[in-house]
Amino acid sequence: MMANDMNSTFANEESLAYQQLPITFPVRFWIYLISNTLSLPCCFFILFHLLFNRNLRETLSNHIIIVILLLVLIMECTYFPLAIHYYRLGGNWHVQRPFSQLWTYSLFGFFPTQTVVFAWCTIQRHILIFHSQLLATKANRILVHYIPSSNLSICRYSIDGNWCVSALFFPQFNSLKDRYHRSSDHSNSNYNHFNSCPFLSFPKAASSPETIDAMEETKKADHSSSINRHSFWHFSISMGSFRVMVFVWFTIKFIRRSSKLHAVL
Question: Which end of the chain has fewer CB atoms within 10 angstroms, the N or the C?
Fold first, then answer.
């Protein structure tokens, strides 16, 4: 009786996932394939001109654009081909656990990094237009332009990568690891369904009593480690908020002092 209930539960979860993403795998395959095929040459073309044209390369406003394009190029050469292959197989792609963990690590690093770097790009545009005096000297350009651009790109990826490593390899976060590394057959622990990406995660229906027992044990472990997970989330949110406040405070103080110095001169 319990086995039938578990099977029906996972079948309902699977149908719910498809309801949330109603686009079929073949349609998604062609959308990704066509868009990535058109986007990749455009990215190479723009990067070629920005990197090999000296005037464009030395323009400050183009530096952050180059960083964004490099991040996009990495994703187009790594993530999207794998996603296209996944959709081509109709969601039935089994990979080894180390590959899945490495894939999740890179995925959770690049997507947030692109968002944060793009947000900094808008702030930098504001500085270049309304506070161009802050970039008048070489020291100011290093402090206001080069250091934030490089630190945001590297540190943001490191923060998300460290979070992902904690979620994947520390035992108190097994629920997150099982969520992104769920297999249709728990007896074969060396292989996992390609669902490390949250956009590609589709639960599979349970098919054996051993699978149900493993899921029950996972639920018990998840319940016992809930306090550790909550502490981890609170600590991550606190540290992230502290970094943002320090960065905003430092930027405002620097702009004010530079404006006063420029007015005196």
Answer: N
Tens-digit pLDDT profile for residues 54-86: 998 888 889 989 989 998 898 888 888 888 888
Q: What is the pLDDT of residues 16-47, one digit of tens each?
A: 444 455 788 889 899 999 999 999 999 999 99
Q: What is the domain-level CATH number for residue 168?
A: 1.20.1070
* Inter-residue contact 172 to 229 (CB < 8 Å): yes
The single-letter DSSP state of residue 132 is G
Tokens 């455009």 belong to: 42
**Block residue for tokens 């187009």:** 76
What does the alpha-carbon distance between residue 201 and residue 195 come to, in Å, rounded to a whole number?
Answer: 4
Model confidence, pTM: 0.58
- Let me know: does 77 contact 44? Beta carbons within 8 Å: no
Question: What is the distance between the alpha carbons of residues 50 and 107, in angstroms, rounded to a whole number?
Answer: 26
Give how many domains the chain has, as a whole number.
Answer: 1
Report if residue 22 sits inside a domain. yes
Distance CA 176, CA 237 (A): 17
* Contact predicate 18/204, CB 8 Å: no
The reply to whether 251 falls in a domain is no
Q: Which helix (DSSP H) or strand (DSSP E) does residue 94 occupy?
A: strand 94-96
Cβ(84)–Cβ(36) under 8 Å? yes
**Does some domain include residue 127?**
yes
Residue-number span of the structural domain to which 148 is assigned: 2-240
Q: Assess if residue 144 is contained within a domain.
A: yes
Buried b (16+ CB within 10 A) or exposed e, 160-186: bbebbeebbeeebbbbbbbbbbbbbeb
DSSP 89: T
Q: How far apart are CA 202 and CA 218, in angstroms?
A: 18
Contact (CB, 8 A) for 12 and 203:
no
| Residue 236 near residue 163, CB atoms below 8 Å | yes
